[in-house]
């Protein structure tokens, strides 16, 4: 008789053994008893049965990256810790992170008898989180099992997620120049006027100490900004200098002299001015730092029925001064000319009549009536009158 016999033990019978417990090792031996009752006990089985009915699960998610703020391109270390070593067969382990509109997914496709699964997360454009946490752990395919063949339970560890164990702030959104504007009233600004120029940022930014953000205006002037600390806007003054001239004050460019201008995640500010966000889009500031050049008041003629050159007589009715704003200063159009007269000392010049608005650069006659002339201080027969013209450009 050489026929073998197979003896099966049910799970119930096996788990019902008095010493059955997680982690216990079982060995088996068989006892053969013949029909007469003689019994022989065989050798102990070569196979040891190790009891492992505990499913691997995730105990915590941690990071070796130091707590703090991180920006575009920074790498974050992530570690998923399990109750026991597991091995991945096929596919990859996927860790999904809550990073706003688009959730980041990091993977690891090499896990061999490890109770720690490591990941590296590189912050991408648009990622954002106040306290980074995992939202899902899954397998793309394949299996993740302990050595006994129990599949890992991939449920997130309640109270032991990454945000419970770390404080990692993610900022994958770079700051921008959201607008250039001014608190100064619109209109013409003349030599010496001070114009507020404000830079608005899309989020709080900080300029490294001692460095300067330079704003180049289309008048050729530069406005300097320093000491920007966690600010969403910064103002500085532009003083209109001689020769400055534009019908629409605008910013040509923003330049950093050195250092950094960054958000909390150390993302640098994009210094491009977005279309429609320039100073000239938000304000209507006209700059004229060109003072009208000196000129002679030209010919003064007397109108009357019996006028005599060099005299103003009883029949005369008006003085006509010819003004010729024939100079290269466009802002004189819209400006004014006014006549002053004096009798006696040069300090006696007094404005006569009302200012006349200039509508073009052509010669312009300004007429003063005899009534207006008679108002000149010290006006009396026998006195000499002198006249001068003052041009005031549109900026004043
Ligand atoms: Ca197990
Ligand atoms: Ca999300
Ligand atoms: Ca936290
Ligand atoms: Ca940001």
Write a structural description.
The protein is mainly beta and 396 residues long. The chain has four domains: 40 residues, no CATH class; 114 residues, Immunoglobulin-like (Sandwich); 113 residues, Sandwich (Immunoglobulin-like); 93 residues, no CATH class. Helix content is 5%, strand content 43%. It has four helices and 31 strands. Strands 15, 17, 20, 23 and 24 form a five-stranded mixed sheet that branches. Strands 5, 7, 10 and 13 form a four-stranded antiparallel sheet that branches. It has a three-stranded mixed sheet with strand order 6-14-11, with no helix packed on it. Strand 8 and strand 9 form a beta hairpin. The longest helix has 5 residues. It is rod-shaped, with a radius of gyration of 46 Å. It starts with 10 loop residues before the first helix and ends with a strand. The model has no long low-confidence stretch (mean pLDDT 89). Bound molecules: calcium ion (CA) (4 copies). One calcium ion binds next to loops. The site of one calcium ion has 7 residues, from loops.
Q: What key phrases describe this protein's structure?
A:
396 residues; mainly beta; Immunoglobulin-like; 5-stranded mixed sheet; 4-stranded antiparallel sheet; 43% strand; binds calcium ion
Helix/strand layout:
Blueprint lengths: L10 H5 L9 E2 L4 E3 L5 E3 L7 E2 L7 E5 L5 E4 L3 E15 L3 E5 L6 E5 L5 E9 L5 E2 L4 E6 L3 E3 L16 H4 L2 E4 L4 E6 L5 E4 L3 E14 L5 E5 L4 E4 L5 E9 L5 E2 L4 E6 L4 E2 L7 E4 L5 H4 L2 E4 L11 E5 L11 E8 L12 E8 L6 E8 L6 E6 H5 L10 E8 L4
Parallel strand pairs: 6-14, 15-24, 16-25
Antiparallel strand pairs: 1-4, 2-3, 5-7, 7-10, 7-13, 8-9, 8-12, 11-14, 15-17, 17-20, 17-23, 18-19, 18-22, 21-25, 26-27, 27-30, 28-29, 28-31
């Amino acid at each position: 008789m050489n026929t073998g016999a197979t003896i099966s033990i049910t799970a119930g019978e096996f788990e019902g053994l008095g010493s059955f417990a997680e982690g216990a090792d079982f060995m088996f031996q068989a006892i053969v008893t013949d029909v007469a009752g003689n019994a022989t006990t065989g050798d102990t089985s070569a196979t040891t049965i190790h009891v492992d009915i505990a499913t691997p699960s995730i105990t915590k998610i941690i990071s070796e990256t130091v707590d703090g703020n991180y920006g575009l391109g920074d790498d974050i270390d992530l570690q998923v810790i399990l109750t026991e070593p597991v091995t991945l067969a096929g596919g990859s382990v996927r860790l999904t992170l809550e990073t706003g509109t688009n959730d980041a997914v990091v993977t690891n496709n090499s896990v061999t008898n490890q109770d720690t699964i490591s990941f590296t997360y590189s912050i991408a454009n648009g990622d954002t989180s106040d306290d980074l946490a995992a939202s899902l752990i899954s397998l793309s395919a394949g299996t993740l099992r302990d050595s006994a063949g129990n599949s890992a339970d991939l449920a997130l560890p309640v109270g032991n997620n990454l945000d419970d164990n770390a404080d990692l702030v993610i900022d994958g959104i770079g700051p921008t120049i959201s607008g250039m504007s001014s608190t100064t009233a619109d209109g013409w600004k003349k030599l010496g006027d001070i114009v507020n120029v404000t830079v608005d940022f899309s989020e709080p930014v900080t300029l490294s100490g001692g460095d300067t953000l330079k704003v180049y205006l289309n008048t050729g002037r530069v406005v300097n900004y320093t000491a920007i600390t966690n600010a969403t806007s910064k103002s500085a003054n532009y003083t209109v200098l001689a020769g400055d001239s534009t019908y629409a004050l605008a910013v040509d460019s923003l330049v950093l002299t050195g250092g950094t201008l960054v958000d909390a995640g150390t993302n640098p500010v994009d210094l491009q001015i977005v279309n429609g966000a320039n100073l000239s889009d938000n304000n209507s500031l006209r700059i004229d730092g060109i003072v009208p050049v000196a000129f002679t008041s030209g010919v003064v003629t007397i109108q009357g029925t019996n006028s005599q050159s060099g005299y103003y007589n009883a029949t005369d009715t008006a003085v006509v001064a010819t003004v010729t704003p024939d100079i290269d200063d466009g802002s004189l159009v819209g400006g004014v000319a006014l006549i002053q007269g004096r009798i006696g000392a040069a300090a006696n010049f007094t404005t006569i009549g009302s200012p006349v608005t200039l509508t073009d650069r052509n010669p312009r006659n300004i007429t003063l009536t005899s009534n207006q002339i008679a108002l000149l201080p010290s006006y009396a027969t026998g006195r000499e009158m002198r006249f001068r013209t003052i041009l005031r450009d549109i900026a004043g």
